[in-house]
Task: inverse folding
């Protein structure tokens, strides 16, 4: 068994932010004050939301240039931390479609310890901070972030977390699978940053595991053949359906939601080019795009047959491939023995998950000492990386205070 003071689960943008501060990269203000020393409980008691306070420091009012922030980072002693994750640095951005674009500007995806402006400068890139950014550039940025801040030696990837237990002495035991071998780790402080989609949703219909069915989409070249059925209705399935349609495929797009809900998403997303394109496709009533609203798949059969129900009628079609993109859920099963409380966070499109109830000054669970929720998984975070990154300072600050590692 390998023991560390802190184990962070997940090498996505959420986990990387905490790791950077634990590695010793602390934010200072212009007067030389270490901002991790702020009494966040005091802020909270005085009606200031601590996460909002740090976000304001990272992203000051719009009258300052994009990419500038009020933090100066200086290196201090590192804490004994590691990350365990199945992906390398960058989290789910390793697996999104090859041409995927973000919904918000590059600046919103930045982690403050290594501003994207600096990344541009170091690598002679010209990423426009006010524009959306593509997967390739964003993933490169997260990878450079972990190289530049010397995090890589402490990121153990290819580790699939399979269970977590709390021991009587208060430490956590984490079991992972690495190349099919079971490994055991323990730690005093556990940061849960496994992301919003660590369990893929399943349709739960017969035949879901047949070999023409795919649970993710990367690029059109992976799908030879003409006819493709896509099941979903959210942004990921919209992306796949459109890209394949524009690559001359014949698409059947099956979704449970009503037409007006899908059209509302398209209408409200016209600031994104691919939703402008959706408007065009639907307005032109394109022949190779059949969208079936209020429909559900009943079963998949051999010989590439898909049976679905639409308008109280059962129909069967044939497709070369099926792509199921129906989202995911945070894997709280891993914490099921800990009696945690959750907060339901739902909006029409993006926030559809349970968040762990946490103290707002530290993001430590209200139920389990030394367990921290990170990223969207903490109650009190907002949308996008800009909405959760500031929470990393609450977590790292609290842990560093407990470890007596704040100068
Ligand atoms: C297609 C798409 C587009 C998006 N666009 C945007 C956008 O424009 N702006 C924005 O801010 N956000 C966007 N997001 C949301 C995205 O969730 C965040 O950008 C960000 O990646 C979340 O960071 P995270 O670190 O919390 O989680 P993740 O990035 O999900 O990282 C968590 C990591 O933990 C790993 N993991 C999970 N379970 C286990 C396990 N059992 N064992 C080991 N490892 C595990 C995951 O595989 C992952 O690598 C988008 C998401 C998708 C899918």
Result:
């Amino acid at each position: 068994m390998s023991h560390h003071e802190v184990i962070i689960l997940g090498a996505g943008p959420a986990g990387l932010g905490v790791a950077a501060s634990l590695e010793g990269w602390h934010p200072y203000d212009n007067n030389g004050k270490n901002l991790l020393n702020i009494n966040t409980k005091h802020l909270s008691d005085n009606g200031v939301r601590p996460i909002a306070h740090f976000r304001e420091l990272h992203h000051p009012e719009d009258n300052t240039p994009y990419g500038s922030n009020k933090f100066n980072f200086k290196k201090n002693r590192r804490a004994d931390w590691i990350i365990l994750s199945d992906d390398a640095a960058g989290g789910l951005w390793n697996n999104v479609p090859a041409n995927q674009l973000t919904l918000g500007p590059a600046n919103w995806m930045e982690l403050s310890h290594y501003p994207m402006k600096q990344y541009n400068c170091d690598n002679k890139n010209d990423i426009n901070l006010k524009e959306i950014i593509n997967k390739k550039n964003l993933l490169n940025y997260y990878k450079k972030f972990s190289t530049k801040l010397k995090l890589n030696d402490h990121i153990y990837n290819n580790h699939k977390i399979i269970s977590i237990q709390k021991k009587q002495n208060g430490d956590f035991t984490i079991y992972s699978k690495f190349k099919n071998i079971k490994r055991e780790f323990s730690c005093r402080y556990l940061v849960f940053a496994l992301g919003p989609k660590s369990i893929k949703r399943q349709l739960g219909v017969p035949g879901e595991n047949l070999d023409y069915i795919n649970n993710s989409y990367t690029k059109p070249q992976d799908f030879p053949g003409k006819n493709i059925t896509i099941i979903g209705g959210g942004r990921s399935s919209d992306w796949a359906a459109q890209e394949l349609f524009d690559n001359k495929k014949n698409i059947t797009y099956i979704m449970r939601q009503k037409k007006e809900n899908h059209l509302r998403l398209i209408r409200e997303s016209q600031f994104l080019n691919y939703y402008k394109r959706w408007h065009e496709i639907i307005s032109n009533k394109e022949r190779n795009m059949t969208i079936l609203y209020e429909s559900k798949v009943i079963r998949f059969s051999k010989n590439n047959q898909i049976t679905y129900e639409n308008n109280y009628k059962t129909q069967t079609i044939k497709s070369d491939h099926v792509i199921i993109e129906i989202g995911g859920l945070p894997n709280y099963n891993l914490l099921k023995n800990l009696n945690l409380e959750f907060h339901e966070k739902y909006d029409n499109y993006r926030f559809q998950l349970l968040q762990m109830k946490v103290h707002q000054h530290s993001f430590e669970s209200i139920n389990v000492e030394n367990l921290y929720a990170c990223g969207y998984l903490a109650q009190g975070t907002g949308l996008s990386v800009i909405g959760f990154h500031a929470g990393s300072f609450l977590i790292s600050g609290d842990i560093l205070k407990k470890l007596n590692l704040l100068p």
Remarks:
- The chain is about 25% helix and 30% strand.
